[in-house]
TrEMBL record:
UniProt xrefs under Pfam families: DDE_Tnp_4
Source organism of this protein record: Gekko japonicus (Schlegel's Japanese gecko)
Domain DDE Tnp4, first and last residues per copy: 99-261
Cited PANTHER family: NUCLEASE HARBI1 (PTHR22930:SF206), PTHR22930
Family: Belongs to the HARBI1 family.
Cofactors required: a divalent metal cation
Record key words, sorted: Hydrolase, Metal-binding, Nuclease, Nucleus
InterPro entries for this protein: HARBI1-like (IPR045249), HARBI1_dom (IPR027806)
Primary residence: nucleus
Name of the protein: Nuclease HARBI1
Compartment(s) of residence: Nucleus
Gene assigned in the entry: LOC107110533
């Protein structure tokens, strides 16, 4: 009912243009049902006694209303001190989030298909998601072509600009490790560039300290992979090709992320149609990480990662 109340004004304004408006409660139910199930508009219309075209229109109106009304309220970093303490308890200090990319299959007009074709030969858009320690999305960027490099998406994101400026985390609390000042950090996979605040794993032939660092970093980064798995398990419209126009992809995906956060906040279990192993498979069913763009290499980021590597190694070696 809370969701219905929040969306009521927006959806009632949309109802005024309909000859026989469907109630707000039913419209929200139709939209949420469509997102949560792999069903055609026609099948959902039969369940609710509505025409196929009506269901399609309602689904888009509801997802747009959720995206417009709730994005800034529910997709945000809350209580960064608590998040940093929780990540530190997992072994990685100063961390406020984990970032990764996820491909969303989309339907693209044939003349544009080559622009959205990814390396596995299906058309997609990228969802760049950053989550906190419990798997809530604190930032999302959606809509870039599946051809895009993760670094390309990052460089054009709001979170990049705010982290670079040191304003994403209030006060930008900094600690010193091995003589190096370390700001709030986000961990990411090897496709992302090394920055002062963005820490991917080491690559290539690893020594013992680097291997230990990667182990700890991977354990912390796992939270975003699992979040993508839960997202797709709850909102199953994301499992297959989205049957919507390209202009509607971003609000649909954003609405699913927003509702994911709402479910996480209220302790709603992931549907049991997916086992723990299947959730892991959903999260990992992505393309292999790209090589990072060497033009984005950052000397300050190298100093931060080296300091953390040494600090984690010393900590692990204590008796």
């Amino acid at each position: 009912m809370w969701l219905v109340d929040v969306l009521r004004d927006t959806l009632q304004r949309q109802c005024t243009v309909m000859r026989e408006p469907v109630s707000v409660e039913e419209r929200v139910a139709v939209g949420v049902w469509w997102m949560a199930n792999i069903m055609s508009y026609r099948t959902i219309g039969q369940l609710f006694g509505l025409a196929r075209s009506t269901v399609a229109g309602i689904a888009m109106e509801v997802t747009r209303a959720i995206s417009e009304q709730l994005h800034h309220r529910l997709v945000a970093l809350r209580n960064p001190d608590r998040v940093m303490r929780a990540f530190a308890a997992k072994g990685f200090p100063q961390c406020v989030g984990a970032m990764d990319g996820c491909h969303i299959r989309v339907r693209v007009p044939v003349p544009l298909a080559h622009l959205y074709m990814n390396r596995k030969n299906y058309t997609s858009v990228l969802l760049q998601g950053t989550v906190d320690n419990v798997g809530r999305f604190v930032d999302i960027v959606v809509g870039q072509s599946g051809q895009s490099h993760d670094a390309h998406v990052l460089m054009r994101s709001n979170i990049m600009a705010r982290m670079e400026a040191g304003v994403y985390v209030p006060g930008n609390p900094t600690r010193t490790f091995e003589g190096v000042p370390v700001p709030p950090l986000i961990v990411a996979d090897a496709a992302y560039p090394l920055r002062r605040w963005l820490i991917p794993p080491y690559k290539g032939h690893l020594n013992a300290q680097q291997a230990h660092f990667n182990k700890v970093q991977g354990r912390v980064r796992n939270v975003v992979e699992r979040a993508f798995g839960r997202l797709k398990a709850r909102w199953r419209c994301l499992l297959l090709e989205l049957p919507v126009e390209l202009r509607n992809v971003s609000p649909v995906v954003a609405a699913c992320c927003i509702l994911h956060n709402l479910c996480e906040d209220r302790g709603h279990a992931v549907p049991e149609v997916c086992t723990e192993q299947e959730l892991r498979a959903l999260a990992e069913a992505e393309l292999a990480p790209l090589e990072p763009d060497p033009r984005t290499a950052d000397a300050a980021g190298e100093r931060v990662r080296e300091a953390l590597k040494t600090w984690l190694w010393r900590r692990a070696r204590r008796p």
